[in-house]
Design a protein that fits this description.
Blueprint lengths: L1 H13 L14 H14 L9 E6 L5 H14 L5 E6 L3 H4 L7 E4 L4 H21 L3 E5 L1 H6 L12 E3 L9 E8 L1 H7 L6 E6 L4 E3 L9 E6 L17 E8 L2 E6 L12 H11 L18
Parallel strand pairs: 1-2, 1-3, 3-4, 4-11
Antiparallel strand pairs: 5-8, 6-7, 6-9, 9-10, 10-11
Length: 293
């Protein structure tokens, strides 16, 4: 139970900057242990055979940013050849980002992240990805990758549903891999419980200058607190990926990095972003059908 209590504490602290609208519901210990063991076996830790240079956004003066950085770093610990460099907001416009294989924006406040790096930093990230770099956004970082906000990176041909009413709450939601996600992350078909903390609900943006995104996982349940719209989260994308120029973009709305049994998802995504392999499947069309299984 100590492990589950730690997971509960981390998940709650990740959302400490927002109103406590919902408690995480933790299943019975034996049920959780069975699911966790199965997921950890199927979604295995990747065997890396290359160096992997990862830059991660960090505001050292912000406790939420520090916590999310630490949660991410813990997931990458032990990945052979991986090195992590913390970048302050001002660094994105000043550094040569091409020395990194992947840039990561973890959880936190998306508007704060986007505004703190400034337009010069946002443009530097766009150039970096366009020239072949990888971008991973988790929760706030997924918001940041979308198009539509003044502080958006505009890497994804996606926008958020109800962009001004997005504080949906926190807890556990059911997430299910698509065929693409199973090929990329692990051959697990059932829906799985995953920590959720106000992550974006995505829909196509309809930009003609960007390709459509591919869905790697779907939401199969929803949280809709704080007068947020209902019946829009179920069967909406939870994980998506796309290309931007010669680079790759992966956006994760929930928090697998703090969900027991799913700790290996982020390392697998990082290696895929840096691999330069062809996409697992063709992007879906602008109108996506999320079939249940």
């Amino acid at each position: 139970m100590r492990y589950h209590a730690l997971w509960f504490g981390v998940a709650m602290t990740l959302a400490s900057w927002l109103p406590a609208s919902r408690a995480v519901v933790v299943p019975a210990a034996h049920q959780r242990a069975e699911v966790t063991a199965t997921l950890a076996r199927v979604i295995s830790f990747p065997q890396n055979t290359r160096s992997l240079r990862i830059a991660v956004f960090l505001r050292s003066d912000n406790s939420t940013s520090v916590l999310n950085y630490q949660a991410f770093a813990q997931r990458v610990a032990g990945l052979p050849g991986a090195t992590i460099t913390a970048l302050a907001p001002r660094d994105f416009a000043r550094m040569d980002l091409s020395v990194f294989d992947v840039i990561v924006f973890p959880g936190g406040s998306p508007a704060s992240q986007g505004r703190s790096i400034g337009e010069a930093g946002r443009e530097a990230i766009r150039r970096y990805v366009e020239n072949g770099g990888g971008y991973l956004g988790i929760c706030a970082g997924a918001f940041l990758a979308t198009s539509g906000y003044p502080w958006s990176l505009g890497l994804l041909n996606a926008r958020t549903v109800e962009p001004n009413n997005w504080i949906r709450g926190r807890g556990e939601v059911d997430v299910q891999f698509s065929d693409d996600g199973r090929a990329l992350l692990g051959d697990y078909s059932p829906a799985m419980p995953m920590v959720y903390v106000n992550g974006p609900i995505l829909e196509p943006m309809g930009r003609h200058d960007l390709p459509p995104y591919t869905v790697a996982a779907w939401y199969r349940s929803e949280i809709a607190d704080n007068n947020t719209p209902r019946n829009v989260m179920v069967n909406s994308p939870a994980f998506v990926h796309s290309t931007y120029g010669r680079g790759r973009v992966f956006a994760i709305s929930p928090h697998p990095e703090v969900t027991p049994g799913l700790e290996n998802i982020v390392p697998r995504v990082l290696l895929w972003l840096a691999s330069g392999q062809e996409p697992v499947s063709r992007p879906v069309s602008g109108t996506m059908v999320a079939s249940t299984r």
